[in-house]
Amino acid sequence: MSRRLVKSGFLLALLALAVVIGGTITISPRARFMLGGAMVNAGYGLQDGIHDYEFHHHEGLKPEEVWKEFLAQNHLASLVRKQFPRSTPHPLVAIVVCMDSRVDTIELAGDTRKYYYVVRTAGSVMSDHEEEMLELAVANGVKVVVLTTHSDCAAEKIAKDPEKRKLYPALAAAIDEREKRVQELLARPVIAAKIKSGELLVKRMHIDTPTEELLSTH
Ligand SMILES: [Zn+2]
What we know:
Blueprint: H1 3-24, H2 29-48, H3 63-83, E1 93-98, H4 105-109, E2 116-121, H5 128-139, E3 144-150, H6 154-160, H7 162-167, H8 169-176, H9 178-187, H10 189-196, E4 201-208, E5 213-216
Parallel strand pairs: 1-2, 1-3, 3-4
Antiparallel strand pairs: 4-5
The structure holds zinc ion (ZN).
Residues 98, 100, 123, 150, 153-155 line the site of zinc ion.
């Protein structure tokens, strides 16, 4: 039996165990939430340290091989989801986050229940359509919008470096207008009205990239 099948089987067994625990054992919601979080972290622990599996020989990999592996992993994940459908609560929080792969928005929220709209852009900069999408999310019941930046941001580094600005002018210009975009969002009719009435909180936070801790910007 291949290593892939053994690992897939093991992960499926863990998932089945989680479903059984979640569905049949009467424990408090808090205990279920904490146990679920522990099992998610057990999954991260199992997968994170595997550097000799599939993507290990980065240098020699051809794009087609990477794509095939990506697709195979998606097929496995969707197979699991067909067997074990997720619940889909209405989001209460919308988060704007840079596209940096080190920031994992599930970890950021400490929660896998899909209570979050996530907008991921280069340098956490909103454009017109993202502002409108957030306004729509708020109109549909989102109560907290979290606008983030993060440490060691590649887009910010480019904006600060005159030579790199020449190579990536649009990205640098986007970072320059990030604050203006925030002010635009705050001034949008639905957003401004709900902040005024106390139905919406908009928080500005800075993510410590290695730990994903949300830090106040003030
Ligand atoms: Zn970034």
